[in-house]
Amino acid sequence: MDPQRWPLYLVCLMIVSGGTIYFGVRFRSFAFVAYGVLYGYIGFAAKVLDGTRDFIGAMLFVVTTGSAVVFSLVFLARRIGSAE
What we know:
Order of helices and strands: HHH
Number of strands: 0
């Protein structure tokens, strides 16, 4: 991907992911919340790690941010589930 298109890609990815998460929370569909978070994370992480040659740094990034995503999804699932 052309480096000049990175901001446009990021904006479109965040709009689509944010919209999916918003409507998933609004209509209490945790599956759509998870889809929005995971696809947004995968799209962002793939672009951030594109072209990196540092395997240890890349794995540290994936483990750290992936753990944060999983923990936040568990927290959000409990919050959505207890609101009923």
